[in-house]
């Protein structure tokens, strides 16, 4: 009981800090206590969801959530996950996991390289800035109104929404096919593709994970795939850990935060590799 409560708190703290639910790390421990993989999956998702909700509340208070991006990514991601759930048998799980491991590993290396570069500009005033359509530099809204035509602004908005919905749908589709939320892919993509400040990407991704977790949780509740004993043990500490972890997000330097995220992504990739190895090994034994 102490072990599971402690795991809930530690994983929740790290997840709240960097904006990931880290279900792939928690799942093997829950699976050890269950006789059914479906119950383990439902319980794991439940703990991830309540932790994500708790962390999201604090990120909202710290203004770390871009609600426009959240709506686009959450809705497109939910739609993609819905479509992906019907395509589970279309592509081998081994191929999908290999693809996910490659993507996460690439993003980890990319963030690690970026963490070595000097952080440019403060991100505290993000809500008063827009990303210029010609690059990643930001300019004030008032300057845009004076120097940019309405058509170019509209074109910029369309391109941004296309990027956001593309990230949400593609990650949701892939996640729906393998049964994972895949915030470990979505959040780094917000940083590298959408050029979001790390704190905003963390809060927005955690909010998106909470939304999609709630949708998935409803299905597991209907199918009675939740172990309420494990949920009772891990949920309180997961919520507390995520809430406390989210308090430190804005206190860590941008470059250091990217380095921390890259290290956690490497751990996630290693955990998925072990899962892949187990899947291949079990298939070999079965044959």
Protein described:
With 287 residues, the chain is an all-alpha fold. The protein contains eleven helices and two strands; from the N terminus they run αααααββαααααα. The protein has a two-stranded antiparallel ribbon. Helix 1 crosses helix 3 (37-61), helix 3 runs parallel beside helix 10 (228-247) and helix 5 packs across helix 8 (183-192). The longest helix is centred in the C-terminal third of the chain and has 33 residues, at 254-286. The model is unreliable at 121-139 and 141-145 (pLDDT under 50).
Structural class: mainly alpha
Low-confidence stretches: 121-139, 141-145
What percentage of the residues does DSSP assign to strands (E)?
under 5%
Shape estimate? globular
Q: How many beta-strand elements? A: 2
Rounded to the nearest angstrom, the distance between the terminal CA atoms is 37 Å
- As a whole number of angstroms, the C-alpha radius of gyration is 19 Å
Q: Trace the largest sheet across and list its strands.
A: 1-2
The biggest sheet, with number of strands, parallel, antiparallel or mixed sense and barrel status, is: 2 strands, antiparallel
């Amino acid at each position: 009981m102490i072990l599971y409560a402690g795991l809930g708190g530690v994983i929740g703290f790290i997840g709240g800090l960097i904006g990931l639910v880290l279900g792939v790390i928690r799942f093997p421990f829950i699976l050890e206590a269950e006789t059914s993989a479906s119950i383990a999956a439902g319980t794991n998702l439940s703990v991830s969801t309540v932790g994500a909700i708790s962390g999201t509340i604090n990120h909202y208070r710290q203004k770390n959530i871009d609600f426009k991006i959240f709506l686009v990514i959450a809705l497109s991601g939910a739609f993609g996950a819905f479509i992906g759930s019907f395509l589970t048998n279309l592509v081998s799980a081994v191929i999908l996991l290999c693809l996910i491991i490659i993507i996460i590993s690439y993003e980890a290396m990319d963030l690690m390289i970026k963490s070595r570069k000097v952080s440019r500009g403060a991100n505290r005033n993000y809500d008063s800035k827009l990303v210029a359509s010609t690059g990643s530099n930001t300019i004030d809204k008032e300057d845009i109104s004076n120097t940019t035509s309405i058509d170019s602004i509209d074109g910029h908005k369309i391109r941004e929404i296309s990027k956001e919905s593309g990230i949400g749908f593609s990650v949701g589709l892939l996640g729906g096919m393998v049964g994972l939320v895949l915030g470990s892919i979505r959040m780094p993509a917000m940083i590298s593709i959408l050029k979001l400040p790390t704190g905003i990407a963390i809060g927005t991704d955690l909010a998106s994970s909470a939304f999609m977790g709630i949708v998935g949780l409803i299905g597991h509740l209907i199918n009675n795939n939740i172990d309420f004993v494990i949920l009772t043990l891990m949920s309180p500490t997961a919520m507390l850990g995520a809430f406390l972890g989210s308090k430190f997000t804005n206190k860590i330097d941008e470059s250091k935060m990217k380095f921390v995220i890259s290290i956690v992504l490497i751990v996630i990739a290693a955990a998925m590799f072990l899962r892949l190895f187990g899947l291949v090994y079990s298939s070999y034994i079965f044959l």
